[in-house]
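Structure (tokenized):
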């Protein structure tokens, strides 16, 4: 009987500057040191089984037991980890799967076995950017060196020139022209214009804002404010894709973009001590009259 293939790792590398990672710091600032313990526990569970983990209700209960944190708080911390980009948001929302590009890259760099050990469903969890690590490398064929055929006497100089031209032409390589891609704020402008042209998205944004139809005219300015916020907070690496850009905008709008003013409740006017003494004296006189003392 064949020995079952072990998919998990016995250990995995951790960056020495992990505590200075902006994503880790954002989660720690919100939930404290216990959130880092939770993150490392999830990584251990992922690598022990492969390069992903199904975050179903049973796992959340087990995770809560491991780290001694209430299950509801575990879910809140996990949702923030997904929001800041520690785990892939699309796979988590659609399939409740925890993984990330960095997790998968570390896994396939450490594992000699390749994805053939995983079934088609598991391979569907692979993210773009991992393919170069898992594609088998084909070694180039050893060139066969043939001895040159000696030139026969009597060939004209013109034929030698034509032969040399043919050799030169066969060695030429066609280069694909380099087309630079838009990056940073230029790419954000492209995504912003695409969103503003999408009537369905604008209608959805208006409904989520809770500010009425007038918010539709405010959207261009709000998107500009959001881009400024991302730059000023140093979080450019969290909006690498259009989906991240859209998701982060809605999160920013609900937490920072809307300035709500709360009317302060009117405080009753406080009476002076003299006024309180007068009222107390009047009350005593009334009681004395009622009792027939006066």
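Design, position by position:
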């Amino acid at each position: 009987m064949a020995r079952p293939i072990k998919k998990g790792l016995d250990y995995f590398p951790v960056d020495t500057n992990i505590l200075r990672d902006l994503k880790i710091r954002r989660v720690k600032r919100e939930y404290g040191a216990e959130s880092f313990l939770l993150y490392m526990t999830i990584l251990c569970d992922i690598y022990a089984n492969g390069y992903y983990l199904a975050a179903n209700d049973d796992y959340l209960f087990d995770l809560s037991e491991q780290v001694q944190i209430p299950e509801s708080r575990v879910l809140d911390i996990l949702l923030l980890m997904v929001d800041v980009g520690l785990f892939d948001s699309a796979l988590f929302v659609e399939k409740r799967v925890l993984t990330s590009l960095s997790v998968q890259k570390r896994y396939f760099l450490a594992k000699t076995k390749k994805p053939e050990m995983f079934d088609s469903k598991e391979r569907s969890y692979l993210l773009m950017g991992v393919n170069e690590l898992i594609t088998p490398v084909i070694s180039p064929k050893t060139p066969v060196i043939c001895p040159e055929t000696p030139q026969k006497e009597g060939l004209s100089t013109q034929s030698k020139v034509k032969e040399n031209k043919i050799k030169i032409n066969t060695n030429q390589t066609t280069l694909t022209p380099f087309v630079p891609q838009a990056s940073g704020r230029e790419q954000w402008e492209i995504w912003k214009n695409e969103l503003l042209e999408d009537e369905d998205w604008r209608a959805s944004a208006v409904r989520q804002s809770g500010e009425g139809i007038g918010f539709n005219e405010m959207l261009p300015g709000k998107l500009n404010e959001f881009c400024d916020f991302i730059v000023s907070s140093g979080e450019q690496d969290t909006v690498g894709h259009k989906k991240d850009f859209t998701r982060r905008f809605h999160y920013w709008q609900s937490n920072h973009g809307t300035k709500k003013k709360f009317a302060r409740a009117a405080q009753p006017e406080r009476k002076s001590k003299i006024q309180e003494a007068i009222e107390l004296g009047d009350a005593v006189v009334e009681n004395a009259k009622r009792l027939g003392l006066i």
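Reviewer-requested clarification: The chain is about 55% helix and 0% strand. The longest helix spans residues 273-291.
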